[in-house]
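Why Terpene synthase N-terminal domain-containing protein? Reviewers of the renewal asked for a concrete example.
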Amino acid sequence: MQECDARMQERAAELMEQVRSMFKDTTDILQTMDLVDSIQLLGLSYHFEKEISEALNRVHDADFNDHALYETALRCL
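Here is what the prediction returned.
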């Protein structure tokens, strides 16, 4: 049982690193907003507070003059 728990914790740590990499690698504002939205909907935002804060700062600073309704709605969430 302990071995299974250790493997699950190791896998969770790997997946969290993958998500952190996604924050670093994503330069598109829409993809960034989708990523933040998905993480929040999954209830995992407490694991990524720093990354979400930095991403939202980038979104706030981005130019939104030519985006469609979906992007505008995501930005307002």
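The domain at 2-76 is CATH 1.50.10.130 (Glycosyltransferase). This is the kind of structural detail the renewal will allow us to pursue systematically.
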